[in-house]
Amino acid sequence: MAHEMSGEELRRYREQRGMNQQALVGWLNERLNRRYDRAKISRWETGAERIPQIVAGALKTATEPVGIPAAAAVRAAPVVFCAANQKGGVAKTTTCVNVAWLLAQSGRRVLLIDCDPQANATVHLGVDPHERELAKGTLTHALKASRPMREFMTPVCDGAFDLLPSSISLAATDRELLRQPNGTLILRAKIAQLAGQYDFVVLDCPPHLGELTVSVLNAADQLLIPTQTEMLSMMGIPQLFETIAGVRELVNPRLQILGILPTMYSPRRLQDETVMKELRELAAAEQLHLFSPVKRAADYSKSVMAGRPGLAYNPNSAGAESYREIADALLALAGEEMRHGA
């Protein structure tokens, strides 16, 4: 009897060849004349469904590099992107979830790590934080465990990308990091384990400048500053600049500011126009890119109920171009790193 391929074997086969689930779908459908989709691959990899012998046979007899040239098998470090602002309610989670979705839609292997004890990204993507906490499958446990980071991931959006969920237990971790020697470097070390497994890691920050946020900045390559077009959101940006300068000097010289993203923008409100003027002046003074503002839209709140990113719910939602602009900037930076061997 032919040996059955396990879900773990399938996942390893795919990742060793630098493929995401969509790339594997395309290769299988072309080779076997089938109509598989990402959801099917996800069910195979998680063990929810048996892998057909015809699929296992095709994979095990393939001799040529599949989908991506063999040179891409080098264990390249992922580009680590985060969104941070010490003010809450500025659409950090909405930004991270939708940028992760767009990067995955471009064919990249993407992991979203929910670094906020409120678990907004986890809930947004239809994952139950309490259930994952009981299963010891959240960021809290990943930071403390000696097990590989890969074991804590949960596929979301029909396998489009992976999520490392959060839960309320992460609030205690913020205090524990302060007590540990080099505690704010643990997340950075854990992400380093993912070299070769993901092209992008997206980190959703808590709404304050505590130890968890510092941990994120220590690990990140690119930082986006979302800010609601109102004065209180803008007021935290100078303090964030100071924190970034300290992180660059002492720990992470790679950290760069991708730009500033105005959110929840209403062009008819005088306050919003006033804040936009000040943001333009701030961006010019700091030589930072100011992304197109994201207007208020009901689609993003509706998408939470559906457990999907807003742009998966409606690709033409207000602000879609802004999020695509951010994803394109990250893809361009990743391409530059590959060309220069960074």
From TrEMBL:
AAA domain residues: 82-257
Source organism, top-level taxon: Bacteria
Extent of the signal sequence: none
Gene Ontology molecular-function annotations: DNA binding
Keywords assigned by UniProt, alphabetized: Plasmid
One Pfam family recorded for the sequence: AAA_31
This protein's record includes keyword RNA-binding: no
PANTHER family membership: P-LOOP CONTAINING NUCLEOSIDE TRIPHOSPHATE HYDROLASE, PARA FAMILY PROTEIN CT_582
Function statement: Involved in chromosome partition. Localize to both poles of the predivisional cell following completion of DNA replication.
Protein name: Chromosome partitioning protein ParA
